[in-house]
Amino acid sequence: MAAGSISRDEFQSLSSTYMLKKMLATTVCCNRLENISNQMVSDMEIESLEDVSCMPDVSESKTLTYEYHVVYNESYAVPVLYFNIFTNDGRLLPLDEVWSQCPTHYQTHLKDNKWSTLTQQEHPLLGRPFLQLHPCHTADFMAQVISKSSQKINYLACWLSTVGPMVGLNIPSDYMCKD
């Protein structure tokens, strides 16, 4: 097996914890047309209550459903994160809006490669269109991570905790401790 890759057997032995996740996230749009999360709204300190342009308009909130699947890719011999984001009326979020949901530091870092990093592909098991984080650089990246680690790592947890946040999937730190 090439450095940074994972065998199908190893993937299957680790994957029962990681295969599917659905979650809801609410985005509140401020009057200044800036997207802010519920946490940011609750943490916000408003110096002047008279400045209504800083107050969130709850009527502008939008609930999104995120659906994530991790599937093994035979060609690259690595896991692939497939996902979709749905609006509260069940429609798929358009690709440019999906990109706008990515944290700013990812958008800045990947702006020249965004459509080769985030691509639409038929889900290999479901046969429906899904977005994916393209697996072409996964083995190279994971080879670097593995070579720098002095102890055995949980390949899927390490990989997913690195790529997941790009598309709103944050992995609890206790997964890193599981064998």
Nearest-integer average pLDDT: 75
Can you identify the CATH class? Answer: Alpha Beta
Number of helices in the DSSP assignment: 7
Helix proportion: 25-40%
SSE arrangement, N to C: HEEHEEHHHEEHH
Task: Tell me the distance between the termini.
Answer: 21 Å
Number of strands: 6
Please tell me the total number of domains: 1
Task: Name the strands of the widest sheet in spatial order.
Answer: 2-1-3-4-6-5
Percent range for β-strand residues: 15-25%
| Shape descriptor | globular
CATH topology: Yope Regulator, Chain: A
Report low-confidence residues grouped into runs of 5 or more.
29-50
The radius of gyration computed from the alpha-carbon positions, rounded to a whole number of angstroms, is 18 Å
CATH architectural label:
2-Layer Sandwich
Largest sheet: 6 strands, antiparallel
The helix/strand class is alpha+beta
Q: How do you describe this structure in short?
A:
Keywords: Autophagy, Transferase, Ubl conjugation pathway. This protein has 179 residues and is an alpha+beta fold. It contains seven helices and six strands, in the order αββαββαααββαα.
How would you describe this structure to a colleague?
It is a single chain. With 179 residues, this protein is an alpha+beta fold. The chain has one domain: Yope Regulator, Chain: A (2-Layer Sandwich). The protein is built from seven helices and six strands; from the N terminus they run αββαββαααββαα. It has helices at 8-14, 38-43, 95-101, 104-110, 114-117, 138-148, 155-163; strands at residues 20-29, 35-37, 62-73, 78-86, 118-122, 129-133. A six-stranded antiparallel beta sheet has the order 2-1-3-4-6-5. Strand 5 and strand 6 (129-133) form a beta hairpin. The longest helix has 11 residues, at 138-148. The chain is globular and about 45 Å long.
